[in-house]
Amino acid sequence: MKVGYARVSTKDQNLQLQLDALNAIGCDKIFTDKTSAVKQRVGLDGALSYLRDGDTLVVWKLDRLCRSLNDLINISKNLEQRKITLISLTESIDTSTPIGRLYYSLLGALAQMERELIQERIKAGIKASKRKNGRPPSMDAEKIATAETLIKSGMSHDDIAKQLNVSRSTLYKYCPIKDQDLIDDDSIEI
Question: Of the residues 9, 76, 156, 169, which is catalytic?
Answer without folding.
Answer: 9
